[in-house]
Write a structure and sequence with these properties.
This protein has one helix at about 65-75, and strands at about 5-10, 15-20, 25-40, 45-60, 85-95, 100-110, 115-125, 130-140, 160-175. With about 180 residues, the protein is mostly beta strands. Strands 1, 2, 3, 4, 5, 6, 7, 8 and 9 form a nine-stranded antiparallel sheet that branches. A hairpin with a 2-residue loop joins strand 2 and strand 3 (about 25-40). The longest helix has 12 residues, at about 65-75. Mean pLDDT is about 85; it is low at about 150-160 and about 180-183.
Length: about 180
């Protein structure tokens, strides 16, 4: 059995997020601190990545003061509680290859020390030295104690309602390494 581990190239990897509300949407990025993917016989079998919740960046608000205020709100207890929980994580539980480089991924997403399973489709290209992977994870924020302006918990929000689901568009590049390097 041929097994190989790939360490995430964090500078070449990115998570782009989109959050929606009644009156529009906001988008930005969040950094991946570290991670790895495991392959057996050229098929994805596992992996994990750690997300730096203190790195939340808002791309659609150009005014510096408004951007800083919104970033502070996302870091607050209303959302990610970044001071208390500076990282979130995703761990692959199963990866089922469908066709070619298309996979059905199931894993555990942990935000604010709360863990729930998530499932999504991913495209993975592995040339033996480099892996490029991408997929979209749809997250129900209320499962992770992010209830601010959720219609599930507050009445009469009108146009201040924030939708419960947000998207994480994940693009990962990882390089082949010796597993001893991961420690």
């Amino acid at each position: 059995m041929d097994t190989q581990t790939f360490k995430l190239a964090t500078a070449q990897s990115e998570i782009a997020w989109i959050g929606r509300k009644v009156t529009g949407a906001h988008n930005g990025t969040i950094a991946i601190e570290k991670g790895w993917l495991n392959f057996s016989n050229d098929q994805l079998v596992g992996g994990q990545f750690i997300i730096d919740t203190t790195s939340i960046n808002i791309l659609d608000i150009s005014d510096p003061a408004t951007n800083a205020q919104f970033a502070g709100h996302l870091a607050s207890d209303d959302f990610f509680s970044s001071a208390k929980y500076p990282t979130a994580s995703f761990e692959i539980v199963s990866a089922k290859q469908k066709t070619g480089g298309n996979y059905d991924i199931t894993g555990n997403l942990t935000i604010k020390d709360i863990t729930y399973p998530v499932n999504f489709d991913a495209t993975i290209v592995n040339d033996g030295q480099t892996v490029n992977a991408s997929g979209k994870i749809v997250v129900n924020r209320t499962l992770f104690d992010m209830k601010f302006r959720s219609g599930n918990f507050f009445l009469n929000l009108g146009d201040t309602l924030i939708y419960n689901e947000f998207d994480l568009n994940v693009h990962i590049t990882a390089k082949a390494v010796n597993t001893a390097v991961l420690a």
